[in-house]
Recover the amino acids of this structure.
């Protein structure tokens, strides 16, 4: 059974929730429709004319990409222009385009974490360079018969509830007596219509992040034995985890700038990088940011990083960094290509779990616009 386009979008929004995106970022469905079965998904960094030809050749009817094809409102679609011809080709071949951009950068297990992993930044203590989103917290209170306490707890924990800092499975349970009288037309799990029932129940309280609150409630309702579940979900005056752009942290093993240059070239399969700093200087703490990171060099310096690995560094930013004692490795914007295979693998695993026959492949084309001579 082929997955619907809406299902693919929902899966992508599990990996990279939309509310993680920077304000104004162009994400989600940009062209076509998701209201159709998807036979094959092509995952690409950019949607170029050549990538669309690849999608047509592969029989893909959905492209999941990192960089948007529509950046601002369109006054018209002129098919004599390169952009207009691109849109025309996509529409004529019934290929939809879905974008995951800064939300894929920000999310746990997204582009910036993949960069950090490849370069050896330890996960413990890893932080971000600029906060974009902080999860609001809710308190979930649900009343459950004692016989189903563990079943409901396990369900809500598995869905993402009950995490406080580095602790998970956090909850508080109070025993008590629940009363209810099933009305006409009910099918009570316990008791009989028209008869007042008193049941030994427990009150389970736990913390739920906003980002997963719908999934937690759905999991709780599914695991609960009652047809009418008594529960409360209310905001609390506490903030949860923060999510942001870039990553910064200590390296597994200290190195030098020169050795790190070689590591970057190998990790991202780039022939050349631009470097600011003394190649023999020690590096213990590293910052990374996929895409254009010139405006985040000061953030990296403030975080205590010795080096930032990012793209599109301009001349004056490089001079300012050199004067400030901040080192830079610029491997180019295109290193975000690491998202292609990783997103394809993640979607494949999710669809396989759902017994879907939809195929997902990574684009084999390079969309690097520069030639290195």
């Amino acid at each position: 059974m082929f997955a619907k386009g809406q299902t693919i979008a929902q899966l992508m929004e599990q990996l990279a929730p939309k509310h993680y995106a920077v304000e104004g970022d162009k994400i989600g469905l940009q062209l076509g429709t998701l209201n159709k079965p998807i036979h094959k998904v092509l995952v690409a960094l950019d949607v170029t004319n050549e990538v669309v030809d690849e999608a047509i050749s592969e029989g893909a009817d959905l492209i999941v990409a990192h960089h948007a094809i529509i950046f601002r409102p369109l006054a018209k679609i002129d098919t004599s222009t390169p952009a207009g011809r691109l849109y025309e080709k996509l529409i004529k071949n019934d290929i939809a385009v879905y974008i995951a951009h800064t939300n894929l950068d920000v999310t746990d297990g997204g582009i910036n974490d993949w960069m950090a992993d490849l370069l050896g930044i330890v996960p413990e203590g890893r932080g971000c360079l600029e906060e974009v989103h902080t999860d609001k917290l809710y308190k979930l209170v649900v009343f459950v018969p004692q016989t189903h306490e563990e079943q409901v707890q396990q369900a809500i924990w598995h869905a993402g509830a009950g995490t406080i800092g580095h602790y998970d499975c956090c909850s508080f349970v109070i025993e008590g007596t629940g009363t209810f009288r099933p009305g006409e037309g009910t099918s009570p799990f316990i008791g009989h219509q028209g008869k007042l029932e008193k049941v030994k129940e427990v009150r389970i309280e736990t913390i739920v992040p906003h980002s997963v609150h719908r999934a937690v409630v759905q999991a709780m309702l599914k695991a609960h034995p009652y047809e009418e579940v008594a529960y409360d979900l209310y905001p609390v005056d506490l903030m949860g985890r923060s999510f942001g752009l870039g990553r910064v942290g200590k390296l597994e093993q200290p190195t030098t700038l020169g050795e790190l240059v070689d590591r970057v070239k190998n990790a991202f399969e780039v022939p050349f990088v631009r470097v600011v700093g003394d190649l023999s200087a020690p590096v213990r703490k590293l910052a990374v940011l996929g895409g254009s990171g010139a405006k985040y060099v000061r953030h990296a310096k403030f975080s205590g990083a010795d080096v930032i690995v990012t793209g599109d560094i301009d001349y004056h930013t490089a001079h300012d960094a050199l004067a400030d004692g901040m080192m830079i490795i610029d491997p180019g914007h295109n290193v975000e290509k690491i998202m292609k295979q990783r997103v394809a693998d993640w979607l494949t695993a999710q669809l396989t779990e759902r017994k879907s026959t939809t195929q997902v492949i990574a684009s084999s084309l390079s969309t690097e616009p520069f030639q290195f001579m």
